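Study this chain:
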Amino acid sequence: MDAQDYLGGREERDEALIESARKLFSGPVTFLKSAPSLQFLADADAPEIAFCGRSNVGKSSLLNALTGRRSIARTSVTPGRTQELNFFDVGEPLQFRLVDMPGYGFAKAPVAVVEKWRRLVRDYLRGRVVLKRTLLLVDSRHGVKPVDAEMMKMLDEAAVGYRIVLTKADKIKASELEKVHAATLLEARKHSAAYPQIHVTSSEKGFGIEELRAAVLGDSRL
């Protein structure tokens, strides 16, 4: 059994929602703006789904896979490079926005940069009334790290519901993926705001993308 076979038995499928999400994401998805601070946030006139994760967890690749674009979200090999909230409009007329949050866990970043990140993310999470759900990305090869647990705690304190998304599932064996999945689920149960389902994905191979895309659409309608 490979990782995709394992995934096939884990993901919940809502075929109607999957098809609706496919049609929506095959239409207009456009970059709106970047916000280095709260004063530059997009107008709170549409539901928002935010994406967060450690630097190099595959966040940009996942955003590209979800939207069916090659480069709607920039990828970078430099951890901690993006320190802004990036907003993307989905649908025409506008249905909701995707928000790419700056990556965390960058060991070489100056203290001032790390503190700026904390303030921006914390204030956005606590004060954004249109934020419907956050997706917390975790690398399947490493599982939940202490910095991920810290982010989960921040989300819990902000009372922001979040889904945990395992990325790069094609990079490890199915047996290892099963262990990581179980450990991640166990960790999620310790957190009040964590959604009780773990999404397993591979941006490169495309599996898990349809289900996650449908989940994003469903969450935007909450």
